[in-house]
Write a structure and sequence with these properties.
alpha/beta; elongated; eight-stranded mixed sheet; 19 strands; Leucine Aminopeptidase, subunit E, domain 1
Amino acid sequence: MRLILAKKPGMETRIRFLTREEAGDIRDFQGDRSEVTVRYQDGETLILCGLGQGSDSGPRAILGAAAAGVRKALELKRTGICLDLSGKAGGGGDVAGVEGAWLGAYSFERYKGEPGPQMETVQVVGAESSRKKLEKAATLCECVWYARDLVNENAEEVTPQRLAAEAEALGQKDPSLAVEVLDEDRIRDEGLGLLFAVGKGSVHPPRLAMAQYLGAPRRKERILLVGKGITFDSGGQNLKSSGSIEDMRTDMAGAATVLGIMRALSILRPTVNVAGVVVAAHNAMDARSYFPGDVYRSGLGKSVEIGNTDAEGRLVLADALAWGIRRFSPTRVVDVATLTGGILVALGTAAAGLFSNDDTLAGELYEAGESTRERLWRLPLYPEYTEAMKSDRADLRNIAKYPRGHASSVTGAAFLQEFVQGLPWAHLDIAGTAYNGESPRGEVGRFATGFGVRLLARFLGVY
């Protein structure tokens, strides 16, 4: 899409933003949040988007309203719009408007016989931020598109090999991005027994890829990002049932988020030091699949008893965390994963779960999420949860001793905490926010959301 800055509207279709107070006597339009209506006047198509109460109509409201307005323009088959931010640009409202326009314009229609119209041009009127800042916002949203595309694609296409190839492609585009890929032989040789066990039952063997971006080599701070990439989760020998298995191609959304943020870093080149690890496997049901009740050894040396092969995400993440810490020597660690259905029970789709052993890190991530409207909510990690992950046959077990479903998100995080070696660490459980199977709502479109790319960019200080 093309971004144009202008002093006055110059497109046939214009999007305006109004609070409830500003809506005044406009017929059949109250200015409520999420409200969109269309008017035709003086040869212009005017799309009115509500911001709600004036006291709560800042950038976060503009973000969702702009996305809804652009979707309405696409319904009308318009390929160019004017985003009229006159009087709304202050305090980052123009950045939010651009982000909303880009996020609202996304669609995944590869498999449709007749794809719908695509937005080509966004003209912005009334901007206060610099062109560079607005273009940076658009670039970040295109990295969100990239993450969404990976999650929306068929599992037959997005295999562990494909995710590793995506990391390698980033390194080929930007030689300063050092990329290393471990195939199944190296995974086994490096002692990553949990990852190898999860992935060995598939015709698409596991991969682990790390991309390093060193934008500030003299700085001591080094941040490790780890993304879960289960390219399809059948549940393994604990096979998932119908009703639970159909969307399991999306179980690699954490890996897509990490690839998205690494792509953004390579384009925008901020002064940070980051390594992104993508750990990828297909949890298949096969004669070679790993067994419930057996014990496997992790890359950190700890042994793990398998209570359920459908709790595989924490296994591959455990090996990736241990290996990434050993290779990159980070000062802080964040992992992103569609880890548990339990987080949907706790938080629904409005927020992702935040777990951390460090208050400062947790606070920074929370604030970043509030800023980008990718909300996080922190849950506890009491010692009792770790105790529930202890095994009588091994060092740990991959499901808790609690009754089925009890505290599943917390105990999954407690398991991961055993592999971060005391470093400041946070775990983001995005199982409820990575995918939207319902109607679009604001900047959250249908299907894959790309949750976490903008949040991590804000956390890293990219924008």
